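Batch 3, record 17
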Amino acid sequence: MTRQPGTSGLIFNEPNVWDKSREGRCAISLPRADVDRAPLDPALTGDTPDLPQLSELDVVRHYTRLSQWNFGVDSGMYPLGSCTMKYNPKTNEVQAARQGFAGAHPLAGEAFSQGALRLMYELEQYLAEITGFAGVTLQPAAGAHGELAGMLIIHAYHAKQGRQRSKIIIPDTAHGTNPASATLCGYKSVNLKSGPKGILEPDAVAALMDEETAGIMITNPNTLGLFEEHIKEICDIVHAKGGLVYGDGANMNAIMGVVKPGDAGIDVLHLNLHKTFSTPHGGGGPGSGPVAVTEALIPFLPIPRVEKQLDSFRFVTDCPDTIGRMHTFYGHFGVMIKAYAYILSMGAQGLLDASRLAVLNANYIKESLKDTLNLPYDRPCMHECVFNDIRQKSYHITTMDMAKRLLDYGFHPPTVYFPLVVEGAFMVEPTETESKDDIDQFINAVKAIAKEAESAPEKLTRAPVLPKVTRLDEVSAARKPCLRG
Amino acid sequence: MKEINDLNLPEDVKYTKDHEWAKPEGDTVTIGINDYAQDQLGEIVFVELPEVGDSFSAEDEFGSVESVKAVSELYMPISGEVVAVNENLEDAPELVNEDCYQGGWIIKVKPSDSAQMDALMDKAAYLEMLKG
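Prediction for the assembled complex:
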């Protein structure tokens, strides 16, 4: 019997901070004010915010205890499909905390911000090189915001051509946020079914593509973790009717250094720095969703743009066709530093190796578990693989039960019930940062759980039993949400 | 989840391929999702309803149902104008699970072409489709 990482241990209860608050309790002693009190105009003031009054130790214990209830990539494997929960190297944090960066002020002016501007300029260049595009903006706040920026660029492009279009094609293997981004631009989403192999078929695209259609949004690798093999052909079909191809690059972690989406004919692509480029996410920090475009679309990029003139860098806002600003100031600068540090510390070969290992790890899991869990699309996958619960159905065990049981074994559950094209989906993305030992431990846990499903199904339907909080009543939480403490 | 033979599929309603049901009552048609759909979705936590007065064509999306697993779109079995929506579902979406053909109805429409009802499936044809 291999020892699994999950075990029980002493965990502390902890009330809300407001319940710990005591009148007059404080963590610091402020020096006595040596100026007279000057009341503000009452029109400018409101009720005092209800801040808890706590000592330093109260606060430290509070957050230390809450952190013990948590599960993060620093505590265990986090194979959440579609999310690329790779390890975030600590050097990224060290670089972002450097005084010159941490103390930089967005209004300091170009002359005092040359280092920050250079970092942004170079990061744009690196991302352009990795993706095969001519121009990049770092402004969007995260992936779906990048999608929106990209779709606004496509919208602006069609407006500039003198004729706006009304529809956009979105495959059933695209990311769930794609239709929302298209709708915000006023486009009607037209659903495109993937073919029997789980990927898009050019004939199906040709049947839908017309001159009322602004373009297509393609996620590649798609949300089944499969590589879209006909990208070039699909791009040609869409371009022939005057449309543009939006590439959702959220799954770029599978193809860095292997495929450049720009070379394949994609026109606009967003990246998730907080996935592919190892910056924290999932509650650990803001995202960042840069958008890369072809030469023809550069005039539409958000402003300000960073440009290099001789040896200095400056912001440029004089871009008449720009879609405007997507974010206050310049985007999430702290995230950019971490991604820049990651790219430089990995190097070109390192990024290529990361993608290869991400794909190898996912295929290893797929092959190791396909006799345990049903595998609807049995073909080589990219960075993630999608199983489902058909074999467990006769024991009345669902994907949700298996996912919850994985918590008891010490693993974060995979993504469940997504993508929608697979009923009862169980979607595993190990990423490149897990060792073979840890992946084997995960595989053994899933196999053990599948055995329990047959022999002791109540262990699954009651799971999880070890975490501080056990099976949540998601139905009541959704039907009667309590949104205040 | 239910076996196909355990599904409650009344004879007096028509079915769509997307698992809605439609039942003519006077000059309106009542529409909901059937037992198979509610069973597959699991516990429903939210129903997004259209507005009274909205018009849709057959197969248009007219709303959505959200369960703890997923959000599913609702598609019009026939073309028509919405004349009533089941406002009880706003506070009690579970009615769709508990009583999908009566208390859990979703909308009533005034059909623009009542002949479209003939194109929908009866129980036997729908069961045939489910069995694939």
